[in-house]
Each structure stands twice: as structure tokens, then as C-alpha cells.
Amino acid sequence: MCALLHQDAEILRSRDASLLKQCDVVVDVGGEYDPAQHRYDHHQRSFAESFHSLCPEKRWVTKLSSAGLIYLHFGRHVLEQLTQLKQHEPQLELLYDKMYDSFVEEVDAVDNGISQCDGEVRYSISTTLSARVGHLNPRWNSSDQDTEEGFQKALALVGAEFKDRLDFFMKAWLPAREIVQQAVQSRYQHPSVFKTSSETGLPKLFHYNIYTVGTESIQTP
């Protein structure tokens, strides 16, 4: 996330406290969460923050990892830069929420060892974003244990996938949501609420994904 916002920044990978003190932003190391000093670690025992605990208006209660912390504090600025939307525009806040809900929260949960569901899983999933990043680590029996090449590949992988999902949500999900919202608002003007969406070829999948539009817009007389 920081790499997307500050592409020319120097990245120092270290746990040396004396070196960390010299850094402008410290992420995922240091044992400290202090946004005023730009320290964003989540490994300390005292840390139990979620998106909801830091931003009560947001509903997510999954414990944040450093990825979620950075997204919470810098995500809107990243989206501004990538979409050219401004923070006062409602579309930006919709994308901000959607990217956390459908991209970043998964990373938080996996990093913190939080299962997606209760009970015994029926099969394993080994192609998640976190798993693919993990596959970039040197193999245990490799003669070359340098992690820098894998780290750079991971930066590129995560950055590309973040941009791809954002592009999809901005150019496909958001327009679909607006169509459904318009249909809900005009539901008394036409016998078929979703006639407009069917005329535009809106996939049924979008109806499910943006069902919340209806609950947000419909007011009981």
C-alpha cells in the first residue's frame, strides 16, 4: 500500500531498532502502533484493533494486520491517486469500503490466523493472495536463501492484483450498483424493478453482490 502511494520511497527491511528509528514509516515490525509517529505494527500483545474499533461507522470486526492498518490510514489517498476521484465524492468511499470488504480484510484474517468459517474445512485452498506471496519465499533446500528477489516479486504481485480489483470495482461493480440503485428508487414507476438492468445485460451476479442497495434505499411508508 505504501509502495503504491510513494513509489520512489526507499524500502528498508530490518528489525534493527536503531535503524527503524531512522525510518519515516515503519510497517509490520517494531512492536508499536502509533499513527501519529507512523508506526504500524500489529504483533504486540496489546494490539486488538479492528476497522470497527478505530472507525466505529465501519462494520468490520476482523483484527487488523499491518496491511489493514495501512489501508485504514492511507487507503483513501491511494484510491484518489489511482482513480482520480476526490475524497468528497461518494464513489470514492464506496470503493474504499468495497476494497476492504473484498480484498484487504482477507489479508488481515489470514495474517492473524483467523479462519473463514467455524468447523472442519472440506478442502484446502492454496491459491489465495497470501499463499501465492508465501510461495515466493526461498525453498528450504535452496542454496540461495536471499529473500530480496521474492520480496520484489511479491510487491509487484500484490500491487497488480490490488489495481486489477480496483479497476473492476470502479468500471464494472460501481456502474452496476448505480443501475440497481436507480431501479430501486424508481420501483413504483415501473412494474418490473429490474427491467432497466435486464435491458443493459447486467449479470445476475451483480444483483446478489449489490443487494444492499435495496436495503439502503427502500424506506417503509
From TrEMBL:
Cellular component GO terms, alphabetically? Answer: cytoplasm; nucleus
Q: Which Pfam families match?
A: MYG1_exonuc
Fetch the InterPro entries from UniProt: MYG1_exonuclease
UniProt lists the family membership as follows: Belongs to the MYG1 family.
Query: What is this protein's record name?
Result: UPF0160 protein MYG1, mitochondrial-like
Organism of origin is Sinocyclocheilus grahami (Dianchi golden-line fish)
